[in-house]
């Protein structure tokens, strides 16, 4: 009976693993089978470097959206990375047990908030604030960067904080023995020692930011043109797909799936970077 149960459990685990792998494989096949032909019809170079996106005239250039995604992600990192790392340091090395517990619960709650709620917050709070301060429309690259910067905080904090905790105690004690203060030991010894884990958190934060669609679409202005400034509207790759897929047909639809292929390649590169960093951390 025991042997039967063990074999049954083994089969269930293998089936679950196969389903997961099959789901990823099917998504890859769908994307590349439907996206590559469209990209080829348009012209790969023309599609990737074209500066005009006008589906009505059969012109499909996604370079403005590629730049939009990169700029918004970079802005989110500028806002989210320092805030997230400092928060993780505080939870790990400065906060009392009680405060650390409360902050961890708050971070978990932040991670569970739906994207549309972040977008709604941006639309009601951030966009009017930027409009009042700078005298512009408010829906802009800056608004999207601020919202994404908040959205990547849980990823950065939840991965960086265990990395700080994992640094061997002799590192900290050795720094104190040499006369360093608590603050100096944390920022000059613990932080550099945990750099692999911190870098991994940033890489995953990039993946989170570049793949976000709903919140960005609500605050970025969604203008399919070359980015002209931090206070001007932009469109990202994800927003482009979400906004037009509902009514797209023929080559337009294929161009949107090809856009998803480009996004998929970005995410693949980010995951590969994360795997490399994880391997280096183990070493």
TrEMBL record:
SUPFAM superfamilies: MetI-like (SSF161098)
CDD domains given in the database record: TM_PBP2
Presence of the UniProt keyword Nucleotide-binding in the record: no
InterPro entries, per the entry: MetI-like, MetI-like_sf, Phosphate_PstC, Phosphate_Transport_Permease
UniProt-recorded name of the protein: Phosphate transport system permease protein
Domain of life (superkingdom): Bacteria
Primary localization: membrane
A GO biological process held by the record: phosphate ion transport
Keywords carried by this UniProt record: Cell membrane, Membrane, Phosphate transport, Transmembrane, Transmembrane helix, Transport
Entry's Gene Ontology cellular component terms: plasma membrane
Biological role: Part of the binding-protein-dependent transport system for phosphate; probably responsible for the translocation of the substrate across the membrane.
Residues annotated as transmembrane: 12-33, 62-95, 107-130, 142-164, 185-210, 255-277
Family: Belongs to the binding-protein-dependent transport system permease family. CysTW subfamily.
Location of this chain's protein in the cell: Cell membrane
Molecular function, one GO term: phosphate transmembrane transporter activity
Record gene name: pstC
Membrane topology: Multi-pass membrane protein
